[in-house]
Design goal:
Low-confidence stretches: 16-25
Helix content: 10-25%
Radius of gyration: 18 Å
Oligomer: single chain
Strand order of the largest sheet: 4-3-2-1-5
Number of helices: 2
Length: about 90
């Protein structure tokens, strides 16, 4: 089996893992400042979902959580929410 794989090509993800890099949140951020995103969060207490759109205005890596945290300036919405901080778990591209 080893001989079969000796000439295979490695993609960037495979190289990052091989060189001790980490995939997912600890690697490169998924979003960048200026990206338009959809934010969605369900309140576990009442099951209501807040879903709004916005623009990434800042980002930082949070060591304790091992995740990127994004500041999102929200479009006008029914929740009167102007800004949120969220991880990739609650964001998606528009």
């Amino acid at each position: 089996m080893m001989a079969e794989n000796k000439n295979m090509e490695l993609n960037d993800e495979m190289m990052a893992k091989a060189s001790g890099g980490m995939d997912g949140a600890a690697g490169q951020p998924k979003y960048k400042v200026g990206d338009r995103v959809h934010y969605e969060l369900t309140n576990p207490a009442n099951g209501e979902t807040m879903a709004v759109n916005g623009t990434i205005t800042a980002m930082e890596f949070v060591n304790e959580a091992n995740k990127w945290r994004y500041t999102v300036q929200m479009d006008p919405n029914a929740y009167n929410c102007t800004e949120v901080q969220a991880t990739e778990d609650h964001l998606s591209y528009l």
